[in-house]
Amino acid sequence: MQDYRSLLLKQGYRIGVWGAGFIGLSTLAHFARNGVAGIAVDVLSQKVEAINRGEIEDQALRKWLGFDIQSLSRAGLMRATLNPTRLLQSDVLVHFICVPTEKDGRPYNRYLEEVLETLAGLPKDYEEDRPPLIIIESTLTPGTTESVVIPFLERHGKVVGQDILLGVAPRRDWFVDDTKSLKELDRVFGGVNAHTSEAMRGVLGIVCDRLHAASSHRTAEMVKSFENAYRHMEITLANQLSLAYPHENVREVLRLVGTKWNIGTFYPGFGVGGYCIPLSSRYVIAGAQRPEALTILAETIKTDEEINRLIARAIVARGLRTVGVLGLSYKADLKIAVLSPTIPFIRELLAHGVHVRLCDPLYTAEEISTVAGVEAFDYPDGLSRFEAVVAVVDHKVFRKAGNDVLPHLHGCRFVLDNMGMWASLSAEFKARGVEYHKSGDADWLC
Length: 446
Description:
Layout: H1 4-10, E1 14-18, H2 22-33, E2 38-41, H3 45-53, H4 59-65, H5 70-74, E3 78-81, E4 92-97, E5 102-103, E6 106-107, H6 110-119, E7 133-136, H7 144-155, E8 165-168, E9 187-191, H8 194-204, E10 211-213, H9 217-244, H10 250-257, H11 277-287, H12 295-317, E11 322-326, H13 342-351, E12 355-359, H14 365-372, E13 375-376, E14 388-391, H15 396-401, E15 414-417, H16 426-431, E16 435-438
Parallel strand pairs: 1-2, 1-4, 2-3, 4-7, 7-8, 9-10, 11-12, 11-14, 12-13, 14-15, 15-16
Antiparallel strand pairs: 5-6, 8-9
């Protein structure tokens, strides 16, 4: 078996990247930075054109990536296309699959299957000792490689492990911290056989500093959903504790709990969002041989889906009829609204006849209307029109406002601060007759 690392670095072979979102684009960019040319395919012409111009449209992704891609694009190391068959040419040796595996908050494999349909057309005129290598970076429901990927390729005449090498290497990046990316974070990988895993080690080692080989692709496949399920449970337990002790400052208790060396600190709040954590428990349950044993995960999903509506109903019970919401993104300074906790919260308020408007500096008024179904308002001037202000996300522009917020709250009676970014203003809020709560403090839901 040829050394795939050397083939990429010294003999001009390329990588192909299926999907040019945050994961795919960062894969393309990191390999290009290390001298490996690559080409990405995506369905959005805007993304393709931006990559070919050497631009990254999303400001958060640019910051997180930490280096400019324009010179890499100009040098031909980074290209993109709308035509998936371009990735079937003989110079593309390694294929990274980075497509979404969820839809509407549920595991969904159709995008993955569409990529496999194209990859099934890979020509067989490769040299015997260098078959194409497929590395799946997308998060998978445990068992997907065995139940979906391998059977699909075999039905199209491919012998997996011989005609095509196949492995799984899920991503762990944290897009709001530039020290937690493809290069720095520990990377788990596993192939369908030993020589596939060895080829993967060489390829991934071009970029990744810390690699951990799993005993098989099945084990590597489970890691991402299992670890995120742990985090999902911990975050949700914080909310359950707050629901169980509504008159206590559970937030303070959990801060003190977190001083123990082997316990993480998680606070009550609006639940989780994004592509990974909200889906993790569903992936684990969907892939389990005995899903009925996963009662804790089932309750985690139930609580996490309900907490936003409970918060909304608590606001309605206070008699508050006009609400300004801050933050559509699921995480600060990151333009991703997938499974954002803000959306079900707003829908519940609207269902009770509350007048709601939303501000998020990362989204246009049109985008806010399309995604959340409400009108946008300007910050901080627009705060004056609301009886209640609910800060779901602590975007930098909201954090930096500080005392500038106070003059605009003359019509406000209630502030709910999910992340505690205005905690230093609590005395000023009280002096103005504003009831101020951090998520999880005493009576925040009463």
